[in-house]
Amino acid sequence: MLPPGKLPGPLLRDLLDRYATSDPAVIIGPGIGRDAAAIRVDETALVIKTDPITFATEDAGRYLINVNANDITCMGATPRWILVTALFPEKHTTPALVEQSFASLSRAASEIGVTLVGGHTEITIGLDRLILVGQMIGTCEPDALYDLSRSESGDAIILASGIAIEGTAILAREASAKLSGLVTARTISAAAGLLISPGISVIPAARALQSAGVTVRGLHDPTEGGLATALAELGEATGLGVDIDGDAIHVLPETREICVALGIDPLGLIASGALLAVVAGSDAARAVQAVNDAGIPGARIGTLTATPGHWLTTSGRRLPLPTFAVDEIARFFAEDGYRSR
Q1: Any idea which fold 148-336 has?
Q2: Residues ≥6 apart with Cβ < 8 Å to 305
Q3: pLDDT, average across residues 238-243
Q4: Per-residue pLDDT at 337
Q5: CATH class of 9-144
C-alpha cells in the first residue's frame, strides 16, 4: 500500500506521461515541480491551481488561501479568485465550526486581495476532520510567466524565510498536548503564532525579487515533504543537478526545538512560508539583498549543476540530499494519533 502524502515521483511521472492531454491553449501543463498550470485566453495567461488542506483544522481557511496563492505567485501571476470545496466531518460539525471556517477563509482572502467566487459545501460520511480544497485562479501576461525549465547550470538557489514554518505552526496548534511535556508553553505559543508572523505567504518575498531587477528563472514553493522534497522537485523541473549548502538553511529556533522534541527532521517537514528562487548566478547577491531589504531572511543555499544528483553539504560533510517518502508531520500524526489536542 502507498503511504500517506504525495504520490511517489516515478509513479506520478508515469501517470502524467500516459494520461495528461494537450491543448494548444495550454502554456504550462502538469509536471513534477510545477506549481500550477497556465492557459492562454486572448492576451492573458490564466494561472490555475488546486490544493487541499488535510493536516490543519484550526484556522484552516488561512492555510488554504495562502498555499494556493503561493503557487499562483510562484508562476509569476497575481492571485485573483478562489473556489472552495469544504467537506465537514459527520458527527463533528456544528454551526460554529462552519461559521469559523467561512470567517477564516474570508479574512485570509481579503488580506491578499483574493475574491471567494464559489465552491461546494457538505457534511461528509467517513471524515473525522475538516477537509478544505481550493481552486485558485490568477492572471498575468503570458510573457511574465516563470518557467523553471529555462534554468541553466550555475544558476543560484535562493531561500527566502525559514523552513518548516507551516509544519511548526500546525504541530503547535494540533499537538499541543504532546508538546506540553517536552517544550515550554512559551515555545508552543510562539510556534503557533508563526502562522500569523512571519506567516506562510510567499507573496512579499516574490514581489521583492520581482522588483529587484534580477534575472529570476523561476520560483518554487516548498510544501508537503519539506525543503528536501522541494529541492528534489526543483532538480526535476530544471533537469539539472542540485548542490546545497545545509549550513545556509535558516531554521527558526521554535522549529528546531519542536523538531528535536518530537524526533522530526525539519528538512522533511511541510514548509509553506519558505520560497525557493532560481536566479542567474551573477544576480545572487542582489537577490539576497532584495529579500533582506524586505525584512525577510534570505540566503543563497545552493547552485544548479550540469552534473546529475541532489547533494547536501553540512559541516563539511557532503551527502545525498535526504528523501522523505512521507512528510514528517504525516509520519508523526500516524505514529502518535491525529487528535492530540
Answers
A1: Phosphoribosyl-aminoimidazole Synthetase; Chain A, domain 2 (3.90.650)
A2: 153, 154, 240, 241, 242, 243
A3: 97
A4: 62
A5: alpha beta
